[in-house]
Structures are given as C-alpha cells and as structure tokens.
Amino acid sequence: MTGATLAFVVVAAALVTASLGVVLTRNLFHAVLYLAGALVATAVVFLLLESPFLFAVQLLLYAGGVVTILVFAIMLTERLVGERITQTSRFLLNGAVVAAAVFVGLAGFIARARQPAPAVTPAEDQVAGLARALVGPFAASFELLAVLLVAALLGAIYLARTED
Amino acid sequence: MAIAAALLTLGLPFAAFLLLALVPRLRRSGPPAGWVSIGAIGAAFLVAAAAWLAEAGGAGVWGWIPGAGGPLVTVGVLLDDLSRAMVLLVTLVSLLVQVYSLAYLHDEPRPALGRYYAYHALFAFSMLGLVLAPTFVQMFIFWELVGLCSYLLIGFWYDRPSAAQAAVKAFWVTRLGDVGFIIGIVWLWAAAGTFEFTALFAEAAAGQIPAAGLALTMVLIYLGAVGKSAQFPLHVWLPDAMEGPTPVSALIHAATMVTAGVFMVTRTMPLFALVPDVLTLIAWVGALTALLAATMACVEGDIKRVLAYSTISQLGYMMAAAGAGAAAAGFFHLGTHGVFKALLFLGAGAVIHAAGTNDVFRMGGLFRAMPQTGIVFLIGTLALAGVWPLAGFFSKEAVLAGVLHGQLTGPFVLLALTAFLTAFYMFRVVFIAFFGRPHDPHAHLHDPPRLMAGPLWVLAGLTVGLGLWFTVQPPAGEHGPGWLAPLSLGLAAAGIVLAWATYQARVVSADLLATLLAPLDVAARRRYGLDALYALLYRGAMLGCSRVIGWLDRYVVDGVVNMASAWSLRAGDLLRRIQTGVPQDYVYGVAFGVLVLLVWAQWGSR
Amino acid sequence: MTGPGLQAYLILAALVFAIGLFGILTRRNAIGILLGIELMLNAVNINLVAFARFHADLAGLVFTLFTIAITVIEVGVGLAIVIAVFRVRKTVDADHLTLLRG
Questions:
Q1: Segment holding B77, helix H or strand E
Q2: Which of B223, B248, B506, B542 is most buried per CB count within 10 Å?
Q3: pLDDT score for A116
Q4: Cα–Cα distances in Å, from A23 out to A40, A56, A74, B585, C38?
Q5: Is A131 on the interface with B (CB under 8 A)?
Q6: Looking at the complex, does the CB of residue A102 fall below 8 Å from at least one CB of chain B?
C-alpha cells in the first residue's frame, strides 16, 4: 500500500463517516458540524487529486461560507421556534433500500466501465489554466454566473425579509 | 322579332320579381307590389298575344357551358306552335290569378302580400322559362324553379303546420320524380351527345339514337313528368297542395306546375315515339290515374280537394292521350282544361271567400245568394263534364278519339268510365253546394267584389267562346267514329242525372250507393292506402334508420365519449394520489427513475 | 505516480451521493433535506475533479467552480425559502408542507 493509497483510504473513511453523521445525527446543529467535516474531507480529496486551487476554494467558500449560512439559518429558526430543533427521520428502511440500490447501480456501472488510460500530469500551471479558461471559452458562463449570484442574493433577501 | 318577343315575355316577370325582391320598401307596401307584378305579367301577356297572332316562330340559342368543339350546354328560347300556345295560356292565367288575388288576399298583411306577388312573378318567369326552353338542361333548371315556387306558394301561410307540411310534401314527392328526370337527361345526353331539342329530334328522325337502353332512359324522363303532373303513384302531393291560398291552387292546377309534365312529354314526343312500349305504359298509367282520382273525388267533401282530384284525373286524360300517340289532343285538353279549371278554382275561391269553409256539406243554396259565382261555376262544371258546346267537350272527345285510334281499348274504357264519374262528382258538388238547402240561412253571403268577378267572367267567356268557336270551326286532328260524341255526351248526361237523383231529388240514397260499392267507397276514402303506404315507408325507413342512428349515437358514439371521460376521471383520480405533496416522495420518483436508467444502461441496450 | 485509480474516486463519490440521497429521503426537517442535497452536490464535485485529473482536462475544474458557486446560491435561496415558509406555517417539517398534494 503506497502512501497515496493510504491517504486516500483515510480521507475516504473520514468523508463517509462525516456524511453518515450528517444524515443520521438527531441534533441539527451537530449535523451541520458533520457537514463541515465532510466538506473539509472533500477538500482533502481535491488535494489528493492535485487540485490545490479547488482545495482552497472548497475550504473558503463551502466549508466557510455555506456552513456559516446554515448555522445562521438554524439559529434563526430556533429563535423563531423558541426551542431546539431536533432532527427526526422516518421511513429509514425505505430510504436505506433505495439509496443502497442507487449506490449498487452506480458502483456496478463504474466497475463495468472501461478503464481510462493512466493520467498524465498537466504541464501547465493549474491556476493559470483555470484563469485562462474562465476569461476565454467560459467567459460568457462566468459572467452569467455573476448575474445569477446577484439575482439570487436579491431573491434571498426578498424572501427572507419580514413584512414590515 | 319572335326571339325578341320571347325574351321580353320571359324578362318582364323576372324584372318584376327582381324589383320586388331587391326593393323591400316596395315589397312591403302590398298592393302597389301587386300592381307591379300584374303590370309586368299583363305586358308579357300582350306580347305573347301579339306573337300568337303573328304566328311568330324561331329559336335563339346562346352558348353557356363551354366544351370541346362547341358549347356543351346552351340556353335560349324556342318559340314554336307548342310554346306559343303554352306561353299564351301561362301569361293569361297568371294575369287573371294575380288580379283575382288582389281582392282575395285583401285581408293579408301588406308585407305578406308583397311576398306573395314576388313569388308569383318568379313563378310566372320559371314556367315561361320552362316552356320556352330549347334544351333539356334549361328545362330542368326552370323545372326545379317551378317546383321551388310551388313550394313557396303552397307554404305561403307557413305559420300553419298543415300548410308547411303540404309544401314540404309537394317538394319532396315531385323531387322523387325529378331524380329520375335528371338521370334520364344525362343518359340521353350520353347516348345522343346533345341536350338541344331540335338536334335531338333530328337525330331521332334520322334514327341515330342508339336503341339500347333508350326505353329505360325515357321511362326515367317520364318519371319527372309523373312527379310534376301528379300521375299515379306520385299524385299524393296535389290534394295536400290545397293548403295554399286558393288562387295559388288555380295557378298550379291550370297553367303552371302540373302542366309542366304534360308539356314536357308533348315537347319530347319525337323521342318517346321511338319507344312504343313506354308510350303504352304512359297511356295505361294516365288512364288508371284518371279513374282512381275520379273515384277519390266522388267521396271527398272538401270543395278544393274535389277539384284537386279532378285535376289529377284530367292530367291522366292528357297523359293517356300523349301515350296513345295523340300528343296534340292531350295538349289541346291541357289548354282548354287550363282555362276552365282556373275558372272552377277561382269560383271555388269566391265560394270559400264568402262561406268561410271548404266543406261542401256546410254550404248549400249558394246559387240564390251568389248568382254570378253560381253561373260561372256551372259553366266550368259543364265544361269539365264535357258537355256540348263548351270547350271541354271538344278536347275530351279529341283525347278519347286519340286513345281509341291508338288501339288502346283498356285505357279507353277506363277513360270513358272516368268521364261518367267526372260528371257525377262535379255535379254532386254543384247540387250540394249551390242548390241544396242552405246550411245556415242567416249567413250573409254575397257575390265577390269586382276585382274577383272580373277574371271569373273573362274565363267563363273564354270557356264558352272557345266552345262556340270549335262548334263553328271543328278543331283539326283526330276525329273518332260517329258513335264517340253521343257516347261521351251520354256518359256525361248519365253522371249528371245520377248526381241529380242522388243529391237533389234524393230519389237514390247516397248511403245505398255507398253500401253497394262498399269496398270501392272505403278504398277511395282511404285514398287507396297510398298516403298510408308512404307514411309507413317514411316511418319505417326514415324513422327506423333514425332510430338505429340514434341508438348508435347514444350508445356507441356517446358511449365512447362517456367511457373516455369516465376513464380519464378515474385515471386522474388514481394518478392524483401520486401527487402527495411530500417532497421526499418526489425524490423517490427521481431515484427510481435513476435506477431504471442505470438498469437500462447496463443490461438494456446490449 | 501510483495511487488509487479513477474508479476508486468514483466509487467514493457514489457512496457519498447515496448517503446524501438517504438523507433527503429520510429527513423531516427542511434544513436536514438541504444538508442531504449539499452532500450529493459534493459527490458530484468529487466526480468532476476526478475526471478532470485523470483526463487532464481543465473543463472539469471549471465546472466544479461553477457548481460550488451555484451551490452557494442554492443554499442561500433555499434557506431564505425555509425561513419564509417557517414564518408563514410555523414549521419546517416537510411532512406538513404538502400544499402540492393533488
């Protein structure tokens, strides 16, 4: 077992554990913390995949931003409800069967798929390449994304604001 | 000159019709509209009379529907001896009837009166177009127009259900014959290659028309005449047509509509002459029609219906003469009959106008109350019975002589019997209505106003005048053996005497006669079951068909629709439950979809 | 280098995806459902990056960036909706939010 494989196994185990925590814990706040863990683990997976830039983005935006928003939301609703929100689940068996079936289907599909050629290390600097792509072929999408962000922000404010 | 006269005759009534149809203000004004129509038809009559006196003849033909090598269909006018006489009769009777109507329909609302005269002008135009037609196609077009006008006029009082029904009946029954007529025309065209009468007659004379199938073709053409001229078994519409105003009946019975069939057969006689068997058929049907209608007239109590049956009977005479090859005699009878039948109908109209009823048994003693009407009606009756020296005597004798000359003994016997019955039933009406005891002594009866009396006297004068003219100058044509005239007169006299003995002197009991001839009496009263038969056919075929279609519609078509809607509702109700509103359930759906896709991607498309 | 192949990453992503699906299917709380969605999107990101790495194609990375941005948007709007719904219905329990029931 090489070092890379060992690292992958450890990170994968952490990711799966954190994910299970997200869906199984009863405390909503804990679930969010588990999610933060899962996101960080994912960031490490990105690092393993030699994408340090995305590792950074994941940590900053996702693990930082999203989790912060979620925590805000939970605290807001808790304040409105006036008690701790405990997560309850139902139809556990149904969900487990369906989710397992989907996983088995996907895994089977992946296992049967043709093996790709071994990866070649990109010659170019990754960040420079990304930057060139974003202002080159993906410039229009990038700008549209910016518009979408603004619109979503405005929409979120409109939805969440109180009537007065 | 002749063509111009013919076109003028044709154009005047049409112009009047257009004027009345397109200027509502004029039409709704009533009597002025009537005067417009009367003026037009009067002028047409003068032109026709001038053409008659000048013996103008000729044909003007113009191409209408173009075809390879000359026009396929032509239109125009054909003025010869036949159409000249007919035009004169049509314009004369139309003129008198229109003048008479002005007084008869005095109480009608003004717009209705205008409508009435618009129809009348169109009717005159149609009949004149038919008479002057030089081709079968033009004749057929005007033939249908005549049918349409009679429909409109019979149903003039369209708010009466019986009148509306009678109009529809007249339209449909004649249409039955017209189907045969148009098929016959087309077949004849297929065989001979032309619609024009003169060309057809030339081909017939030269023997160029193929004989194969010609008999059937001519029978089909004759079928048109059967419908229009009310021959057995399509005569049933004519008695019902009495629902129209009485002057309309006079017009239809004397000069237009019913004479169209006889005129057509006379016109195309050279073609019928090619197929003697068809002619024999025509003669037999005509004679049978004459006799059957006469027996039905004997048991009828409605004065107009008696006259209607007598018209059918006389049309049978004309057709029998045509079938016997004596078309001239038949046409002669058509002319004289037109005059005195118009007289009788207008007289009956005057009686109905005064008495307010059609039922002869509710009249009686009218001769004293309205002597003028009585005299003219009597003249018409004598003419119809064939009494010398009135017009009817000569034409009826000519018909009988023609039939006898055609070696048709059977039809001759039938017609002779009819002559006896004609005298009987006409004088039955006269004795009951005019000479019997007054039904209601206090009724205020009076002779008709001058506008109605005028036409009556003109027609009566014509009936007598024509008779006297023929006495002085016997008509050319067929003359029977010496015993024919005494026989004819004797039969008429016997009929009159029997009617007198039964209904005036009451020596013979009418009930006794009815009992003696019970089967005949019952059959005639039931109109030989023909109306019932048609009603049965109508009910059986039409209603049966309708019932089947109705069932199909109700249970199959509606059933499919109802089932579709019920199933849609049911399916919707079932599918509705899928939409639980719980978000996770939708995710389940997506997950199952993904699973199906995965399964399909791995095992499905191999 | 020698390390886990593409399939290992894909299997890992599939597992996280299935866990996220399970979370969506079983959670009552709307925020819990949102968390499940986050997990699933994360799994997709892993896929994209893995494909980009093993095919040496930057497009996968660009898509990942976009996905992350859109996820942020989704969370923002989603939470705003949750708060709005909560304000009206006094609950964020998905079992009670059944206005769409046919």
A1: strand B73-79
A2: B248
A3: 63
A4: 17, 26, 16, 17, 11
A5: no
A6: yes
Is there a contact between C60 and C44 (Cβ–Cβ < 8 Å)?
no
Question: Which of B142, B119, B120 minimizes the C-alpha distance to B129?
Answer: B142
Residue-wise pLDDT for C18-60, tens only, equals 999 998 888 888 888 888 898 999 999 999 988 888 887 888 8
Element (H, E) at B65: strand B58-65
Whether C97 and B583 lie within 8 Å, measured CB to CB: yes
pLDDT digits (tens, 9 = 90+) for A17-66: 999 988 888 888 888 889 889 999 999 998 888 888 888 888 887 777 77
Nearest C-alpha of chain A: how many angstroms from B587?
10
CB B13 within 8 A of CB B121: yes
SS (H, E, C) B366-429: HHHHCHHHHHHHHHHHHHHHCCCCCHHHHHHHHHHHHHHHCCCHHHHHHHHHHHHHHHHHHHHH
For chain A, the first-to-last Cα distance in angstroms comes to 63
CA distance to partner chain B, nearest, from residue A16 (Å): 20
A152 contacts C28? CB cut-off 8 A: no
For residue B302, list its beta bridge partners.
Answer: B359
Contacts of B90 (CB under 8 A, 6+ apart): B124, B127, B128, B131, B255, B256
User: Nearest residue on chain C to B591, judged by CA atoms?
Assistant: C21
Q: What's the rounded Cα separation, in Å, for the pair B316 and B284?
A: 9
What are the pLDDT digits (tens) for B194-223?
A: 888 888 888 888 877 777 788 888 888 888
Chain C neighbors (3+ CB pairs < 8 Å): A, B
Residue B344 CB contacts under 8 Å (≥ 6 apart), including other chains = B307, B310, B377, B380, B381, B384
For the segment A85-91, the average pLDDT, to the nearest whole number, is: 68
DSSP state of A84: P
Q: Report d(CA C86, CA C92) in Å as an integer.
A: 6
Q: Residue B26, CB half-sphere, CA atoms under 13 Å: how many?
A: 16
Contacts of A35 in chain C (CB under 8 A): 35, 38-39
Contact B402, B474 (CB under 8 A): no
ipTM score of complex: 0.86
Residue A101 touches chain B, beta carbons under 8 Å: yes
Q: What are C61's two structure tokens?
A: 């990375």
Handedness of CA B171, B176, B180, B182 (dihedral sign): positive
Residues 7-26 of C with CB under 8 A from A: 7-12, 14-23, 25-26
What is the token pair recorded at C31? 């925020």
Q: Are B333 and B399 in contact (CB under 8 A)?
A: yes
Cα(B169)–Cα(B534) distance, integer angstroms: 11
pLDDT band (50, 70, 90) for residue A86: low
Contact yes or no for B591 and A106 at CB 8 A:
no
The whole-angstrom separation of Cα A102 and Cα C40 is 12
> In chain A, which among 31-70 make CB contacts under 8 A with chain C?
31-32, 35, 38-39, 42, 45-46, 48-51, 53-54, 57-58, 61-62, 65-66, 69-70
The tokens describing B42, both together, are: 């009067």
DSSP symbol at B529: G
What does the block give as tokens for B85?
């006489």
| B60 SS3 class | strand
Q: Confirm whether pTM is higher than 0.80.
A: no
- Distance of alpha carbon B130 from alpha carbon B144, whole angstroms: 9
Residues from chain C contacting residue B587 (CB–CB below 8 Å): 21, 24-25
Residues of C in contact with A119 (CB under 8 A): 6, 53-56
Flag whether residue B564 sits within 8 Å of chain A, measured between CB atoms. Answer: no
Interface of A with C in 73-92 (CB under 8 A): 73-74, 76-77, 80-81, 85, 87-92
The tokens for B489 are: 């007169």
